[in-house]
Amino acid sequence: MLKKLLKKLNRIPGSKLHEKLDNEEAVRRQVTALFGILSSIYGPDKLVLRAGKLDALSLMRSSVVEDRVIALQRIVFENPTIEERPTPDRIPEILNEVEEAIANFVARKTVEEDLEKRVNERMQEKHEEYIKDIRTQMVKEQSGPENAQTLKKFAQLEKLETVKLSKSTYELVRPQQMDQIIGQEQAKRSLLSKLASPFPQHILIYGPPGVGKTTAARIALQEAAQLASTPFAQEAPFVEVDGTTLRWDPRDITNPLLGSVHDPIYQGARRDFADTAIPEPKPGLVTDAHGGILFIDEIGELDPVLQNKLLKVLEDKRVRFESPYYDPDDQNVPKYIQKLFEEGAPADFILIGATTRDPSEINPALRSRCAEIYFEPLVPEQVEEIVAGAAERLQVSLEPSVAKTIAKYTIEGRKAVNLLSDAHGLAVYRAGGHAEEPVVIVEHDIEEVLRMNRLVPYVKDKEQDDAPSEIGKIYGLGVAGFLGSTIEIEAVAFPAAEAGKGRLRFNDTAGSMAKDSVFNAAAVLRRIAGKDIADYDVHVNVVGGGRIDGPSAGVAITLAIYSAMLGKPIPQDVAITGEISIQGKVKPVGGVFEKIFGARQAGMNRVFVPYDNRRDVPSDTEGITVHIVKTIDEVLGLVFEESVETIAAS
Fold this sequence. Notes:
45% of the residues lie in helices and 15% in strands.
């Protein structure tokens, strides 16, 4: 029928594209013919309805040719706003446009009819199978996965979503700006400079727990993104993951860090992909961090194999996926899956890893690709400042002694905030839970929290009546996890019952290297004091049985034995680190920076450091005097304030 209409349209007088109408009668016949075609297309009734909707019914029934032309325009172009009355010389052009529009419409309808006919033929060929599938699909769509029980559970979840508790205290008091992170000025400046560069570096952050490593990294990205020199966008992602809890499958079935492939035979593959045997790659956190920061806390705990895989991603800046089920010629493979297999997933990010481990325990290949930043332990004054800032953000008041008390029991900012939070809860409970009343945390609150947590002072206070010096007792220095501390070493010496048959006793739990230091001390003492340790019964004790890892207590052990054998008291405000050679030289040790910090925390006034460690001494040694020594002779001279010749003569 539509093809007949096309032929009829071509037979309308004057309907050729470039033919001009010569008289008004020809125009009338052409207009009438066009209305006849529209009536054939829409039907008489629907044409009247269409004309009524387009405000063209009266114009269509008019005897004036111009009005009927306007009606044609409105109906064909579906535009009721056409008002301009055409001039006689414009009418042929308008009618040509109308004819073109009708012809296009009829042609389109013809094509649609042909397509519909073919579809019907195809459906007829596979009628049974197709109808069955359609019915099954319709049943699924109508019924869906929901039932009364699932809808009830969904409603319960929705109800739970409406209940909100306040944020945790730590979230509330967490620093939001870099200047709110107390201490670490040099580390913060170094971190910002490495991210603000046009070529930002991967970074490893070392330091004790609770000093702001994670928070500093997050804020550093925010501040770096504000600078024009940095490649980070304003919305650059900060993806955080804990290396201690990150689990992965060596077969790459599961790898939340780098991504994995869900092969169709494994549980977890999408049903449509499983049915068509198409593997689906799942990008991991490295792709989520594309264009931003991937922060791995406790990166030293990350699986060594996974660390090596991560190094490959750092080099390529892409993650590659492989699967024996992938067929590049399969037409059913979606474009995104094909792109992931062919090109990989983008992973151009900056890695920031934080750890409490010693640098020597970190993968050397990882260290070589990263700049290294060291966060320092907090001093009591800084802990007090953290507590004061947290109290201000909590909008609570503190008794003056509360912050100082907390600082005695921890050197971690996070732990200090947790103790304050516990005390805050006690204060609110003590006040009867009245939120409108101002909360004041008193000394009794924090003391009760400390008792409940079974905490002991991190640093033992030195009593005013302590003896200023003691015979055979000295403080060595140790370090563990970036935290320095004092090691109490004591010695006693008695003349042996028989000369040359003295006995030597030492803590086996202190370690073999510390025991070797005792024998080195014996050789040195014979040289400088002329005393043979074999003539004495000597007992050297590391108080508490603490293990001394590595050669670092030789000088302290030498002084303790010397003091016990000669009866010379040692000042108790002195701490010493360094190993002793049998020639009396003070040898370098590790962890000097942390050891000096530990000595200052313990209230020492002086600390002795090997000459070869002089570059490890921090620039800020306020509150403590650092002596750089090369030999045991210098140490004895400074500790006992007498020359070596005097010592030998005595």
